[in-house]
Write a structure and sequence with these properties.
It contains 6 helices and no strands. The model has no long low-confidence stretch (mean pLDDT 93).
Amino acid sequence: MKLIALLLMAWLAGLLSYVANLRLFYAEGISPGDLGAVMLWSALALVVATVIAYAPVLFLLRHWRGGTRPRWLFTIAAVALAIVPVALILAVWRGLSLEALISDETRLFWAFFIPVGVVLGHGFSWLYRDRAA
C-alpha cells in the first residue's frame, strides 16, 4: 500500500512537471483531450515500468545495501530508470531508437519521468528505511 501511494504522488509530480514544461518552454497549454491521453499513457507506462524495473531494482538495491542508506543512491537509481517508461511510450507511438530517445518531442516525456524518479527514489528510501530482510 505504501508503494501505491508513493507511485501516485510520483505520478502527480510528473504530471505537474509535464504541464509546467509545456507552458514554460513550449508556450503551449494542454487541451482536456490531450491531458487525458497524457494521463492514461503515462499511468500505463508507470505501472509497467514499476513491475519490470522500479520495484525490482529498488527492493534489490535495498537488500544489497542492507537498508536505504545512502538515500541519494535510491534517487539516482530511480532517475536512471526513467528510461524504461520513456522507452515504453516511444515503442508504442514512435518506435524505439536512440534518435527517438533524444528528440525534441521526447523532452516532455523526460520532463515527466525524471521527477517521477526523484520522488519515487527518495520516497522509497524514506518509506522503506528499516533494515532489509
